[in-house]
Amino acid sequence: MNAELFTMKTWIILLCCWSMTMSSRHAVGQSASGLEQVTAEMKKMKSFYEAHPLSFEIKYTYANEHDPARVLDSLSGRVEMSGASYHCWLDSVETIRNDRYNIVLFKEDRIMYLTSAATSAAANPLQMMQAALKQTGVSNCEVLYNGSNRVIRMFFREGAPYRQMEMTIDTTSGYLLNTRCIVKTALLMDPSDNSDTAPAGEYDEYAIVQARFEHYHPISANTAGFDERFFFYKDGGEFVTTPAYKEYKIFVGTPNL
Q1: The Cα angle at residue 123 between residues 118 and 127, in degrees rounded to 5
Q2: Which residues belong to the signal peptide in this entry (predicted)?
């Protein structure tokens, strides 16, 4: 697949989208439309995962809208999460969040990017999702059942960046099983590409991005694994990497961090 698609930034955005769609044990009512239904689902999903420390594997796949069986690219990783903290290994990007910091390690470039957990969008994923859904315009939301699975499907207004989003949840365990998003291919392009349209020929105008979540395992609620002191420490007003990350250069994204 061409280098323009599925950049590091794209995958981080997809990870944030995943963290905003945490699953729930609770059933929901009849089908409804609008932002209120989606917001209620997001709250229940987020609450369930924050209450259950877990480890699981994740795999993303990309395909054209009109040829979903032909996978053009894929990416796999692993996630550990406890409460609002998480640690994610996704290809060459490693992301850690605790109650103080968000840490992103770009392994290929040897860059450690730091932001405040309090001010980062990742600190309030529900608010970020609500803003995104309001901006793109959810036209309808429906809840379907397939055996023990509950499927939450969101549709967007004509011309929106997203056409459809879907989440499948196991109502027995409460686990999120998979997500499916039909999104404009142009949104997956490298920002350095000056083209405003999707590439002709190989790629459709819309792409299907799917994520599968599996091999769930309970983990200890101990948050030591999310401690920033494994990665860096402060020497006066300066951030310094630990010996294990001495090859990394630190960039700070929050003023007065």
Answers
A1: 120
A2: 1-27
CA distance 104 to 42: 24
Tell me if 248 sits within 8 A of 241, measured CB to CB.
yes
Q: What share of the chain is helix, strand, coil (3-state, %, to 5)?
A: 20, 40, 35
- Cite the DSSP H helix spans in 149-203: none
Q: What is the pTM of this model?
A: 0.76
pLDDT in tens, 199-249: 555 788 899 989 899 999 999 877 778 999 999 999 988 999 999 999 999
C-alpha–C-alpha distance, residues 113 and 238, integer Å? 14
> Is the Cβ–Cβ distance between 72 and 212 less than 8 Å?
no
Alpha-carbon distance 149 to 34, whole Å?
22
Q: What is the dihedral of CA 254, 225, 80, 209, to 10 degrees?
A: 30
Nearest residue to 114 (alpha-carbon basis) of 235, 243, 244, 232: 232
Cα–Cα distance between 88 and 67 in angstroms, integer?
A: 30
**Using one digit for the tens of pLDDT, what is the confidence trace for 136-146?**
667 788 888 88
For residues 191 and 109, what is the distance between their CA atoms, to the nearest angstrom?
A: 18
Q: Where are the domains of the chain?
A: 53-192+200-252
Place of tokens 């994740």: 58
Side-chain-side CA neighbours of 74 within 13 Å: the count stands at 11
* CB neighbours of residue 162 within 10 Å: 20
